[in-house]
Amino acid sequence: MPSIPQSPTVAFDGQEQGDVAGLPNRMRLSRNNPAPKTSATKFTIGLWADVQRHLLQAYEYLCHVGEAQQWIEGCLQEELPFGVVEMDEGLRNGVVLAKLARIWEGEALVRRIFEHPKLQYKHSDNINYFFVFVRRQGLPESFIFELTDLYNKKNIPKVIYCIHALSHLLARKGLAQRIGNLLGQLQFSDDQLMETQKGLTGVSMPNFKGVGRDLAKDMNVEPEPEPEPEETEFERRGRLLAEAEESIIQLQAIARGYLARKAMATAKARLRLAERYIIKLQSRSRGVITRRVVQEQRKEQLDLEPYITKIQAQARGVLARRRFAKVKGALRSSRVSITNLQALARAKIGRKKHEQVVKSLEVPIIISGVVGMQAFARAVLKRREIRKKLATLDRLDPKIILLQAHARGVIVRRKVRAQLAKLDDATDVIVRIQAACRAWLAKQRLLALIRGLRRSTSGVVQLQAQARAIIAQRKAVALRKQLTTVHVSTGVQGLQSLARAALTRRRVGEVVKRLDAAVPDVIPLQALARGILVRDAFWAWRDYLHSAQAEATHLQALMRGVLQRRRFREKMKFYKTNLSKIVKVQALFRAKEQREQYRQLTMATNVTVGTIKNFVHLLDDSEADFEDEIEVERLRKKVVEGIRENQHLETEVSDLDTKISLLVQNVKSFEELAKARRKHGADTAAAHAARSSLLAAHGDPFAGHHSLDQTAKRKLELYQQLFYLLQTHAEYLARLFFHMSRLQLAEKTKRTTERVVLTLFGYGQERREEFLILKLFQAAIIEEIKAAPHIHEIIKGYPMYVTVAVQYVRPKQVAYVREALYTMINEVISQRELDLETDPVQIYKARVNDEEARTGKPSLRPKDVSFHEAVADPETRVEFIRHLQKLHFLTRDFVNAITGSTRKMPYGMRCIARELLLALRIKFPNEPEEVHAIALGQIIYYRFLNPAIVTPETFDIVPTTITPSARRNLAEVSKMLTQITSGAVFAEDNPCLTPLNSYVSEAIVQWTTWLIEVADVPEAGVHFHANEFLDATVQPKPIYITPNEVYAMHSVLITHLDHLVIGRNDTLRQILTELDGVPHLGSDELKDARDRGITLELTNRFAHIQNPHAEENALWVQAKRGVLAILRVQPAKDLVEALLQPVTEEHELLWEDIVDKELVTERMRMRKARMPSTTGRDDTYRLEDIRSLSYQEVKKHAIYFLLELEKRGKITRGDGYQGVLNAIATDVRSKHWKRVQRREELDGMNEALTHLKERKKFFSEQIDEYNKYVESSMETMQRGKGKKRIVLPFTKQYFHLRELQKAGKAPQFGSFRYSAQELYDKGILLSIDQTSPRQFDKIDVIISSDKAGVFTLEIKDKYLDITKGATDLKMEELLQAQYEHRTSLSLFDGMAKVNLNLLLYQINKK
Length: 1406
Prior knowledge:
GO terms for molecular function: actin filament binding; calmodulin binding; GTPase activator activity. It contains 52 helices and 11 strands. The chain has 1406 residues and is mainly α. Residues 1-50, 662-685, 1103-1107 and 1168-1184 have low confidence and may be disordered.
């Protein structure tokens, strides 16, 4: 059974306290067991026996409870989940009692045990099962408790008494063992005893000792004999000492007699020899010294008396004048303050007079008359004022009318002038408007006309027909008139000519018809004639050309030359005129071609050889790349060191703060604080060398490479391999997190493990380390969700990996939350009058307090009201509604600000959300997305965003600590956001915020969508471009850690090894087995030496263990390396053509030039102390492995590796080995991305360093303040120890100090001499070896201090003045022993033993 932690002041232990005679294991009341200091007052100091009796009753009751718990655990064969003190709460639900009944009655009686975390009335069924069981066993009713005794905790001792009686009954029947006796074997703290005693007040205590006899009496059977108590070791020693008491007394008497006689003889002999001379010398010396002092004092007084009187008078005058001048100056400088004080005094007097007048007017009769008189006076004054105004208006009526007319005229004229001016300015516009209006009107008229015409179409047609008829008639009439005139002949001639023409046309038509009939005969004849003519012309022209062929050729050449030169001159002129444009066009064309190739490189599925050839130079590291890489490594180291330094400073601040608090509680001292301050000092070269020597002397593997032997070096290698294994195999740390989350471990162990894990991954500052830590979180999430039976376990849980994730995200999270929430949080803080209190009761009380503060009188309103009463108050309701509206608006703005900042959120936070969402969907596929979003919100909002809202000063959002009112307002906003994150509206148990449920419902939908969007990111491998070559080609970064942290992690792994590994041949088990345990911590000096940081390189012990793709990965690397070399020397249209081209001498020379250039570049970098690239891409394309080969051999190797990959089905010659080209293109793209990422890392690290410097400055200032406080406290303590005390003359202390002063050995902080008997009576001195307490009056103890915090104790023989022992005690050692609950302390190599607490009290008293 687990024991209760030991109390520092009260301990009931049967082996250290005497038993009461006749009552075994019953504790004797003694003054050595005082009541707790917290309860000791002037009334209880004298009643120590009553206090002890009460505590004794509580102690015995708890022992009986422990007996019952031990018996129940033995019956159930399992450990109860609660302790002895929590037994009453643990039994209330009846689950344990029902299980106890099921042990003997089985399922027949106890069919189902009701279990629920909260106490419900249904738990009474469990208790009823127990009642049925004990009655079946025949337990008398007088031993059975009532239901309310347990369920309502009315009489818990009766319940325990029933369990005791049941154990005796079952033991009598042989069904169970009898309950044990634990009196004097358990230990409890003062608080537990006092709390138990309070619970026993008013409850009758059963007789647990006689339960067996009472049970036998009620059952009318013979009582069982009580078992004889076993003799303890303490009792056995007491019995043996009692048997030999006479012999011991005789021996002690003989020894004391011999020592006393020897001391007495020596003292007498010395006194006899020097007695006469000493007495005479002392008396004469004292007389001479006294006479000289008296004479000198008299002479000085007589000589200086007149001068002293004058000096005193002058000094008093000077002092009086100075005081008067100071008072006068103070009055002048404080004139404004005095004036204000006088004004305040006059105001106070006026207020008092006013209050007196008000009190006198509070009499009902007087106040009614005064009110009536005031009303009548106000009415008279008002009427008089109105009559004066009316009379004045009557006199001025004509003038006012005239003035109004003039004013109206002026106003009208001004308006007319303004209107005319506007019209003048807008004349053109008006004209245009008028024209547009006229056009519109014309169009309208035309449209109306058209519509009218359409409506009257038939009438118009008839009208037109009639009009045409009239016109035709008129023309006919006109023709008849013309025919009747004298010109009729002219018209007849024309008619005749027309007739002749018609006849001619008729004849011609007939000829044409005849010709048409003869066409087939005429056409061939015409063709033959034309052919003859053409041939004659052709032969004539041919003969001419043949005769002039040379001249024609020369002429054609001249003409073509002229035309060509003309066109060339025109083209050159055009080029010269448009030269700049041509250059731009060429540049644009080349840029287009380059962009097309780059687009093909970055986006196309298949990349051509030409594209690879154009961009192959991107795979080479430039000087800037090396500079940036060195800078990144330097900054990363500084960031990690800065984080560790800040953590160390924060730990120092926390330790100093804690120790100062303990000092106030008299647990620690200023000396320990000074020691802690000295630990935080500079590490000089000498200190470093001394530390290395100390580590080397203890065989520590971290002492340094120059001082390691073979064993230590092997251990160092194993630790390097161990941490590499933990870094690259996430399953080990994931299982460790899972197991430690479910254990009640010390907080220090968890914090140390978290710190080591973050150090192992470099706080995620590098690409590789950040990728690996995210893989660790992925494995931990899967481990947690795999073990969760329901999704609500994930929502409510707080696993260990979340704490590590919060610290990992913190540097990037600070910048994100500052950018996303800065505006909103500062808006809340800047509004000084803003109040978001949503409890109407608190609003009502605040209004009552304001009213009392404003009026100075108690409010007539009731102060204690309920929620509904407060809401019913009109003013409170208005204020309450206004607060809810403000809270609604602010919450909406916060939600919008957070949901709109998704793209700014660090990838680490989003990746954790992604892995959590995927794992939840796999484990709980039937749960809706809303439930998954709730689990995401518990991580994203509650762990990452909520702390920034509640405490913005810790995230550098505000420069200083915010006011309490602003923090309350932010807490209200946080409450709303937390409720939205929970995915449910406010329930009826929170009526204050239920009016906002409609908005909460809307916000939940928006919040759920946002959380799912947060998790929508690519996986870590895609984001960090981590492929199969990452861990094989990227060199791990060293970690900066202390040996103490290494050993702490080693200890944690060994403790939980069985839960981390599967099988005997696991790699982790092999390494830990070879390390053979954790080194011993050793002394404080060795521990301090191991507390300094070291650089631990990480190595892979099991590199020879290839994964299934290791050989294939090597083939890819060699093939790509060879192909790049071929493309540099023999570029072609496709890779197959380049491979088939023969190798010539020129190719060999070009290859040698390429190799020479790389060697020269490497030498330059080595000469400039450039570090080699540590990225996978760089190692892939360096020519170290092939530059010693000829180009022909390189080509053979490339063809061989390509054929091997083709055999494995990875590439094919059908597409020209396009797979290799695509792989190289991917590497080129990654190279560019790496440069971009490196610049981002530089910016992020510089920003992180800035914040780290600020925090370091803050911690340093705090440490300086603590150190100043320590120094001032040390000075105060020294002054207190060194002050002079009044010593009574002719006492032991008086003669002791006089002897020290004569010898010139007076300690700086005092010396005190006590009799050993005096210290023994006070309880300080417990024993002295080989000395009886009866002889303590012959021994003196001297306590002195000549150095702050160091006390010297000496034991001397009182008569022989012989020092028997001396030792130095440091205050820090005494306080440490007290803090470790040590009650006594051995001194002088065990010769003496003192009470530690009383010794400290005596030292502090003096």
